[in-house]
Amino acid sequence: MDLTFSAEERAFERDVREFIAAHLPAETKRAQSLTPSVFSDPEVIVAWQKALNAKGWVAPGWPTQYGGPGWTPAQRWIFETQCALAGVPSISPMGTKMVGPVIIGFGTDAQKNYYLPRILAGDDVWCQGYSEPGSGSDLSSLKTRAVRDGDHYVVNGTKIWTTHAHHANRMFALVRTSEEPRQQEGISFILIDMKSPGVTIRPILTIGGDHEVNQVFFDDVRVPVSDRVGEEGKGWTYGKYLLEFERGGGIASARLREALKTVAAFADSDMTGHAIDDPDVSLRLSEVEVDIDALEMAELRVLSAMQTGQNPGAVSSMLKLRVSEIHQAITRLGVDVIGNDGLVVEPMRPLYTLNHEPVIPEALLPVVPKHLNGRAYTIFGGASEIQRDIIGKLVLGI
Ligand SMILES: Cc1cc2nc3c(=O)[nH]c(=O)nc-3n(C[C@H](O)[C@H](O)[C@H](O)COP(=O)(O)OP(=O)(O)OC[C@H]3O[C@@H](n4cnc5c(N)ncnc54)[C@H](O)[C@@H]3O)c2cc1C
Questions:
Q1: Are both 13 and 78 inside the same structural domain?
Q2: Which residue's C-alpha comes closest to atom 7 of ligand 1?
């Protein structure tokens, strides 16, 4: 693969840099730097998403006929890298990277015409209704029922760990529409209006004290049959297709590199008493950097394959695994580097004094929350053991 950029690509890089400088509000950038979470709350990203949409840059992976920018892999890489360098917040992946590709691949024209422009504009906030109590890794055992009643399904059951359900007005969900001997069959993929009567959302607070995930209950919730994507009973196929995009098909290496640089800068500063002088710290910084280099190459390979119309495939499990583990290695290093300063950060304890002064230098405030939040990376989107299983079977053929 030729990694030398052409003059056109360098010009594109300048365009992206100028666009970010002109459209990213300073307050958004600060909010993003302080958030411990995978992606920011919708109100933080709304202005940025609108600016991206006006430029046609919201969904780099989409075909141009649906509003994608038609970028080459190199342009996508340049865009993501510039966004990472500038500290741009990530757009929620639930619309553009998850339900969007499924609607493009399997939706009706009416669904495409209605939902796709709304995803690009950020008019809908989506959440993912896959996991249930008792059905996580063993997802195909899911029990939420959707029973046909004329032009509607009547949905009963519960979904759990639903990220941002409390912000969402739409959920894409896997539900059981019939009982079949093979549990992967009889599952359908439906789009649920979260404002429908019978939907109840209960918050779940995570280890860092964040309200990010929820349990969602459905009591006789009516969903129009026209909001089923694809064929009835074939939802497992669409759900798995979506997981390939959730796990791979993005570029995480640029953001991981910036996160590592931030930790390295802390380690090389008075704030941490120059923790970098500890050989253990400097060695771990180097090891993670090498891991990021290797990840970047793998991501570029997948991007190239996607450019020729292929979907990410099982290799997305390898990317998901490495991204999760590298993220955790960086946040763990961060905690070790800031040392005792980390002890003042506890869930629910104010991080600012009554005079609005941060209790430790503001730049260090997110270090412990990011570490705590990051514990979930090796669980959500499919736990690491499951990814290893997929890699063993489908990539290595063992
Ligand atoms: C912060 C967070 C956000 C999430 N957001 C969402 C969301 O928005 N939407 C959604 O649908 N879900 C979401 N999830 C749920 C997530 O996908 C599941 O938690 C995950 O798939 C694991 O399922 P489980 O929790 O039921 O654990 P289990 O499946 O019970 O697994 C428990 C442990 O056993 C291991 N294990 C299970 N089966 C095997 C096996 N066959 N071989 C080897 N080891 C195995 C697992 O790896 C894990 O370590 C989220 C989870 C978290 C933590």
A1: yes
A2: 162
